[in-house]
Every structure is written in structure tokens, then in C-alpha cells.
Write a structure and sequence with these properties.
Layout (H helix, E strand, L loop, with lengths): L9 H13 L3 H8 L2 H19 L4 H8 L3 H12 L3 H12 L3
Helix pairs in contact: 1-2, 3-4, 3-5, 3-6, 4-5
Length: 99
């Protein structure tokens, strides 16, 4: 008898991360869920978005600075292009915050 997995969509994962954050357990959760390579990729992705939103460097310069392929920068750029100006502003504000 096959059963369905407990987590079946992205919103459930977001809710899990939110509840872990409220319980101050997000660091443990994310460290366990993500491999070291995935965590490194996430750091790169955040830096890609930050640099693209700042708009001071070309995609090639960002690629060289972060040590990632130009295709990775292009994927980030394409993702940003699909977002509203309001979403881009919100993301930019989030990325400027440092804890």
C-alpha cells in the first residue's frame, strides 16, 4: 500500500523553514537539508542577485568575481527579469541587510 509523502509542494517547505526560524532552529534545519555544495551554490546565488541588482558590473565581471560560469549569471538575470519592480526592490532591500 503506497502512501503519499508528507511534503508535496514548495509552500510546505517554506512553511517548514518559517516555523524553524520562529523556533530559532533554521540554522540546524538548513544545514541538515542542504549539502555543502548546495550551501555554497546558495551563497553564490545570493551574491549573483545582489550584484545584478546593484547594476555596477557586467555579467562577465560578476562571473569572474564570483568564480561561477556566465550561464549561472544568465539564469539569475533571467529570473530577475521575470519579477516585478516591487519584488526586485524588496529583494534588494533584503540582500542589503546583514545580520
Amino acid at each position: 500500500m503506497a502512501t503519499e509523502p508528507e511534503y508535496t509542494d514548495w509552500q510546505q517547505i517554506l512553511d517548514l523553514v518559517k516555523s524553524s526560524s520562529e523556533a530559532e532552529q533554521h540554522e540546524m534545519l538548513l544545514t541538515m537539508l542542504l549539502t555543502p555544495d548546495e550551501r555554497e551554490s546558495l551563497v553564490a546565488r545570493v551574491n549573483i542577485f545582489r550584484e545584478l541588482l546593484k547594476g555596477e558590473l557586467s555579467q562577465r565581471q560578476i562571473s569572474q568575481m564570483l568564480g561561477v560560469g556566465i550561464a549561472t549569471i544568465t539564469r539569475g538575470s533571467n529570473e530577475l527579469k521575470s519579477k516585478s519592480e516591487e519584488d526586485k526592490q524588496l529583494l534588494s532591500q533584503l540582500l542589503k541587510q546583514k545580520s
